[in-house]
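ok so i was messing around last nite and threw this chain in just to see what happens. nothing serious, just curious
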Amino acid sequence: MIDIFDDIKIDTKKIICHTGGADGSDTYWENIGEEFGVKIRAYSYKTPSHTSSNKVEVSESDYQEGIIQVNKANHWLNRFGIQKYMNLLARNWCQIKYSSQVIAIGTIIRVGEKSKKGYYNRGKYDIVDGGTAWAVQMGIDNNKPIFVFDQIIDKWFRWSYTSMSFVESDCPKISVQNFSGIGTREILPNGIKAIRDVYNKTFNPISDI
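result:
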């Protein structure tokens, strides 16, 4: 698998952000994206608390696909007690299924390291902390280009399909018509800036970020 994905010219007037409508990163991807004229699809599955005006209810067939993808992702993440969160986890599949690029805000946990919540990465590969890990892992499982802004390190990383790890990267730009803008609920000021940087780099490429 190659690391460098073709930079295909896109119509910036027709970019769609596929996200989840949750508080934090999802909301900033949505609100800032709308400033740039980006269309938003914020996925939900029978979630009464989902209040985004761009809410899209996940179909039953996509939800069932999502369950399969969650279980596949968990071979890598190795987490327990996921069934009670399946309505949230499986709907994440739509964020990935309908996107050709994944851009996330969060924290990367290297192999053998511990997250701020005390969870160790006991697997063989880098993972992302918290719920964001599910969509990111689904993206990796389906060979999508993945970018993660690590708020703790204050740097961008991309997933390398050669080294099978996150490697340091420049701030990405949206390089596809349909992308996934996702991330942690616990977004920090540098995470908000990172989202705006992505949009600025995409729509105002001469801007310094």
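not much to say yet. The first strand starts at residue 16 and ends at 19.
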